[in-house]
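Q: I have 551 residues here and want to know how they pack in 3D. Can you give me a structure?
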Amino acid sequence: MSHPLPPPSPRTRRVWGVLLTAALLLAFFVNLGTAPLFDRDEGAFSEATREMVASGNYVTTTLNGEPRHDKPILTYYAQLLGVHLLGWNEWGVRIHSAVAALLWVLLTGAFARKQWGEEAGWAAAMLTATSLWVMVIGRAATADALLNLFLALTLFDIYRFWRGNDRRALSRAFLWGGLGFLTKGPVGVVVPAAALSLFAVARGQFRRLLEAARHPLGWLLFLLVTAPWYVAVYLQDGGAFLEGFFLRHNLNRFADTMEGHGGVLYYYVVATLLVLLPHTPLFLRTLGRLRQAAQDDLDLLLWIWFGFVFLFFSFSRTQLPHYILYGATPLFLLMARYRGDLQGRVLPMLPALALASFLVFLPEVVALARPRADDYTQAILSVAPEVLGGAFRFWTATGALAMVVLVLLPRLAPWQRLMGAGLVTAGVVSLAVVPAWGAVQQGPTKEAALLARAQGWKVVMWRLDMPSFAFYYGNITPLREPLPGEVVFTRITRLSRLEVPTEILFQKGGIVLARALEGSSDPPASTDPPPPPEQGGRAEEGRRGPRDDGP
């Protein structure tokens, strides 16, 4: 058990507050709208939300006019609220994740503070906010930040119920589980249910487990949250959504590799170390506490929660880094509790120093790698020299210098240096990495879409699936070969494979817009192109509300 610490001074509290505020702003809000939407996930969620509004169908989601059975509805509704407040732009479709991540951080800190004191609470919040992959999903127009918020809330209330037989906490746990189920499906229920079941078995408390499972008010809350939409989508689509979502996107995702996201049994060993950067040394040090986990109910529950997620997804045939975040909240709490176990000045900072050094020399790494890459990658990287210039070099060099200063400061505890490294990492990610990454990978796609929209071209996508194009273009973009007179959006390396001659209209960063010229194909059907955007830019247009032709 941790020994109680004296309360911090008012000055210390103010310093903590300033640092945490800076971490939250840098991790989730600074430059949130700078990078274009990343494909495929951000583009798919955002375009599906746009099509929902354009069609007036708020039950069944579509992508490029075809049913999209990947996820339940709550994230799309959250995006609708965001664009209603901020317009049809990157801020509008991402703000729900930033707010969810903010709440996740603050609630994790509050829980740790209640258990182990104010310093532990601040450390838990800083660890959560400034871990690399939390920053990534907290900025993404996807479902993961929302899901992790609901998983964290479920965890907290499960423990409150177990510790004090708090029936209200148990009811809330069912509520959060229902919201998780409405966000990403079974994972929102399976993870907490499995963790609680394994914990009850470990403690020999089968009666408490049955008591939790037979909680009528909890089940009522769960059904009130989930049933209306699941019933509505079943009545509208029949079994199509249920089959597509539960069978293909859940059971098949576990049993088979989907969308090229395969892995190996040790995938999450590596993923965990990378996802927690720059706090990986504290995680490795905290692993030593696993031997005494059975001595404390909360420790045992936290380790079981993380262990279940780690093992479950290690045996999944579809593996992605953010899956390990479903078990990350317990890790952040354990790391905050045992922060004092970290020793040394330089060794704990090595991952942070290595990451900072890599980013400083990234322009040179790209320059060396580009000639050795395939033609398409070379084309993508052609825009890198101008992007990885002045601002990128300034912020990455400043970050590396700040890391060195943290190592040299004599009066900081090792864990405090690590919190500083997390804050610096958040700054470099938001000010340098995100804008550069977005400009290189997605900037040309956004430019092409806005040009096509302004010119009123009828566009199809061929041998390419980048839903962000349709979002910026403001209209459904069929996935097929172009007919004469249509404009095709595709990779520059694939253009020569078309059976019709083409005229290039736009080319940048590996992608191209080209008009299909007259050939042997039948003439295109007559369709009305999307009108060009009105004066004032997309943000002003977005505030006028969505139209059939999109944002």
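Q: Anything worth noting?
A: The chain is about 60% helix and 5% strand. Confidence is low (pLDDT under 50) at residues 520-551.
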